[in-house]
Amino acid sequence: MPLGAVTLDAAGTLFEVAEPVGATYARIAARHGIGLAPAEVMRRFRAALAAAPPLAFPGASPVRLGDHERAWWYAVVRRAFGAGATSPQFDACFTELFDVFAQAAAWRVFPDAPGALRALRARGLRVGVVSNFDGRLLGLLEHLGLAPLVDRTVHSTRVGVAKPDPAIFHVALEALGVPPSEALHAGDDVMADVEGALAAGLRAVLIDREERRAALPPGVQRVRSVAELVAGLDS
Ligand SMILES: [Mg+2]
């Protein structure tokens, strides 16, 4: 089957946090008089994310979506703060953190990403972003300079379903006008990106920037960057 579209994950694939989350949390918490050890808060943050429900609110009214997103993150950040969350300053600190991560300065675009997105389009491919993210994603892509390089962006809170659910891929491909059999998805998470895309009928590639070399389903390719993915399309 010819390839008509490539969809990509966002965080960990096109961009990443500019500094470790634990460091940002500890730095901003200190401004609110809350003492946190960066390594400890990082460990608790990872555990909180792993235990959190999917970042999607099926059936939620669009006008309430922002509240649901904030509440989801409030619970995650609370767990990450541990005893620090009992501080009377916690709510103010959370508000600042939520705003910080809505700003481009908190993130760093992987150097290969913009050129790779342009190269995909230059091949005549439709390009999409499929991300488990909240409404802050659209502004971030804009401010990071990535929005003009993609045709469609689909985030989980908007469609009410998160990866690895095949439905989020189908929403994206419908918007791109390309059937799953002619699409490839690439991302850095084996379950969300690889298993999800395969279940939705797309081809899948793992973007393994840190060379963690997690086990993959048979036949799934692993590359170290989006640029390497694009180069591999030629061979
Ligand atoms: Mg990711």
Characterize the structure shown:
The protein is of the alpha/beta class and 235 residues long. It has two domains: 5-16 and 106-233, Rossmann fold (3-Layer(aba) Sandwich); 19-105, DNA polymerase, domain 1 (Orthogonal Bundle), CATH 1.10.150. Helices cover 44% and strands 14% of the residues. It has ten helices and eight strands. It has helices at 21-31, 38-51, 65-81, 90-100, 113-122, 136-143, 156-159, 166-176, 190-199, 226-233, and strands at residues 5-8, 15-17, 107-109, 126-131, 152-155, 183-187, 203-207, 221-223. It has a six-stranded parallel beta sheet. A two-stranded antiparallel sheet has the order 2-3. Strand 6, helix 9 and strand 7 form a beta-alpha-beta unit. Helix 1 (21-31) packs across helix 4 and helix 5 (113-122) packs parallel to helix 10. The mean pLDDT is 97. The chain binds magnesium ion. The site of magnesium ion has 7 residues, from loops.
Question: What key attributes describe this structure?
Answer:
single chain, Rossmann fold, 2 domains, alpha/beta, binds magnesium ion, DNA polymerase, domain 1, 235 residues, two-stranded antiparallel ribbon
In short:
This protein is of the alpha/beta class and 235 residues long.
Integer tally of domains: 2
Q: What percentage of amino acids are in beta strands?
A: 5-15%
Under CATH, the topology of the largest domain can be stated as Rossmann fold
What is the makeup of the main sheet?
Answer: 6 strands, parallel
The secondary-structure class comes to: alpha/beta
CATH architectural arrangement of the largest domain: 3-Layer(aba) Sandwich
Number of helices: 10
Q: What is the CATH class name of the largest domain?
A: Alpha Beta
Write down how many β-strands occur, each being a DSSP E stretch of 2 or more residues.
8
Q: Residue share in helices?
A: 40-55%
- The Cα radius of gyration reads 18 Å
Q: Ends: how far apart? A: 15 Å
> Order of strands across the biggest sheet?
5-4-1-6-7-8
> What gross morphology would you assign?
globular
